[in-house]
Amino acid sequence: MLTFGTLACYWPVRHFDYVNLDDPLYVYQTRMVQQGLSWPGVIWAFQCIKGGNWNPLVWLSHMADCQLYGVTPGGHHLTNLLLHSANVWLLFLVLKRMTGAIWRSGFAAAIFAWHPLHVESVAWVSERKDVLSTLFWLLTIWAYVRYAEQSEGGTQKAESSHTPYASRITHQASSYYVLALFFFALGLMCKPMLVTLPFVLLLLDYWPLRRLSFPPLHHSITPPPQPSTPPLLRLLLEKLPFAVLSLAVGALAVWAQQNVQALGTESLSLRLENAVVSYATYLGKFFWPVNLAVFYPYPDSIPMWQAGGAALVLGAISWAVIRGMRQRRYLGAGWFWFLGTLVPVIGLLQVGMQALADRYTYIPYIGLALMVSWGLADLAAAWPRGRAALAGAAALALGCCLATSRSQIKHWRDSTALYEHALKVTSGNYMAHDNLGNVLMDDGKLDEAVKHYREVIRLTPTIGKPYNDLGKAYALQGKMDDAMILFSNAARLNPGLAQARWNLGNAWLLKGKVAEGLAEMKIAVQLSPEDITGHRVFVDTLIKLGKAAEALPYCEAVVKAEPGDAHARFTLGSACLASKRLEQAAANFKEAVRLAPDTPECMNALAWIYATSPQAELRNGAEAVRLAEEACKITKRQKTTILDTLAAAYAEAGRFDDAVKTTEEIRALAVSAHDTNTVDTARQRLKLYKAGKAYRDEP
Known about the structure:
- By secondary structure, the protein is mostly helical.
- Among the domains are: 2-214 and 230-410, no CATH class; 614-699, Alpha Horseshoe (Serine Threonine Protein Phosphatase 5, Tetratricopeptide repeat), CATH 1.25.40.
- It has helices spanning 2-10, 23-28, 31-34, 39-47, 56-69, 73-99, 102-114, 119-123, 128-151, 171-188, 197-206, 232-258, 268-287, 304-324, 329-341, 364-382, 387-409, 415-425, 430-442, 446-459, 465-476, 480-493, 498-510, 514-527, 532-544, 548-561, 566-578, 582-595, 600-612, 621-634, 640-652, 656-672, 676-690.
- Helix 31 packs antiparallel against helix 32 (656-672).
- The radius of gyration is 32 Å and the shape is elongated.
- The chain starts with a helix and ends in a 9-residue tail after the last helix.
- Mean pLDDT is 91; it is low at 153-167 and 217-222.
């Protein structure tokens, strides 16, 4: 039932498109991902900090999808669905193993499987980090539960044992402990939100593992015999290696975010108020999941009554939970699971411009699901006559979850549907306006895009990006002067916005201001050193302008980032050749030929050096002939530049008759194409070859 319901709910995602929020970054605009799995890709994934995150296993999972499905979105959506389905079953099995309660475990897993706020984590390809990290989260808990069972720290087997706890740690228990650490490390490589897991393991020690006990409130009554449990200090020490991993990854996450955006720019008081209100909002949406959107704008201010009311609700629930958790331990475990796992994303350390996000509830809602499931079971036990009504209400609630999720899923079918829905259910949603404007601009609907960009500027007049976006729309409309003003405003408001610098640089180049254009493009490259596509554009621009020497360091950066890219090697070789660094040019052209053996441009470039180099040690007439003949075969002898290389190769190999014949072929092609420059070059080459001399490139 769990599997069927989950697949039935999410099955439409197989036909969904990507959305233009993060999906370009994680999949279809990142060359290393598109190339599939490779050793260079593995190294790149572990070194990459794109979007302010270090999540190498997420990158590798997207590479694996591209290996299997290509860049077609259906397969990528299917992987998310399969991971979510696996998480549902893992949650059920882990809860059942810890508690032995089949129906309660199944009900909690069903809430997790079908809750509408989890649609974002499953239907959004870029939220692979959610479903993948949760897989390792649950595997960590499973391994930890097995460790606890083997060590007898929280099982009924320990009740009859009088052996000190420390001496009962078995070799098998140690193996499960190491396995738990391993799974946890893998999870942290997917999403740093998992840093709260050590705290959750301590909650599980309290319930349902019962490895952690507190003295009874009233000592006048003789307490029932308790199973042997490890002391609190030992439980804390058990969590120490997990905590060390959490601290390390947490510090790395903060550092990575600081490399792409400022943290905590809002006032501390506003962040605290938003955190309290967000907690209450998440709690409310668990029971009444309406008006869900991909983005909830951060408020400029929060009314005191709203923050105070949210704090009062949270405080009252916490007080009631603490009062009731000694008789019903699941209340404390579930409530503090919910509160604790939200801490990294509740906004105390603000990342991004959202006030809250549906995807942040993927793990925290498990805690609330535990409270509801076990609470309903207790209520049914205390109210036998109402069991049928409670069962009906529970079934109705799950049915509503399924229906609401199925309705919410359709909004993720493409970018237009996603942002149009967000604009309907939220107000002041500048991100939805901006991204919808991008969709419209890509579709050529420039007038509609301009309206959305202007609205973004009205809502966020001090942010640079919407000025840049509106400038692009104006540029496409031919309003270049207006566009340049907007690009300049974007760069002024946000000096670190590389895209504005790129656009301004290109605009200057179009106006013939080469120095100004190159200066802006250079700043853009410096602002986004990880943007390899930008490096390529800058390199091509420099080479076209005859500034090969300036292009060299940027070419080298591209090759370092993508060592298996033949085009990058070819470009670096071209820059080296233009700079008269012939040894480096030959080495890079040779590597380009190895990586792309059927590419005539690469073969031609290497053959040219072998045939015409002024350095004798680099010349190789026979190899030049082989490469040039193969390149001519591929191009069907229609490229005069490649035929010119072949003629030079024949001359270097001492085959002057073939060189003359090939050059006459070049001249005939040039005459028919009215290419006077090539005709003149061919005439000069003929004089050399008829005189029995090989052509030498200028030193």
